[in-house]
Amino acid sequence: MPMAADDIAQMIRAAIPDAQVEITDLAGDGDHYAARVVSESFRGMSRVAQQRAVYAALGGRMGGVLHALQLTTAVPN
């Protein structure tokens, strides 16, 4: 069963409370998403570390329930 966009956003916000999260269903199938996550907590972190923080928030669902996630991370301007 695919994962709902709202569930993805909630999981990210639960782990990164100040995160601004935008989820886009890329294929309309509930399996291929793009996420933009902006958080002050990312400041000073490498992009790889930022993305690892988001993947950790998803609790191992990548590659399983959540098939594909195109991820963009950033710090607020």
Automatic annotation (TrEMBL):
Highest taxon of the lineage: Bacteria
Family that this chain belongs to: Belongs to the BolA/IbaG family.
Protein name: BolA family transcriptional regulator
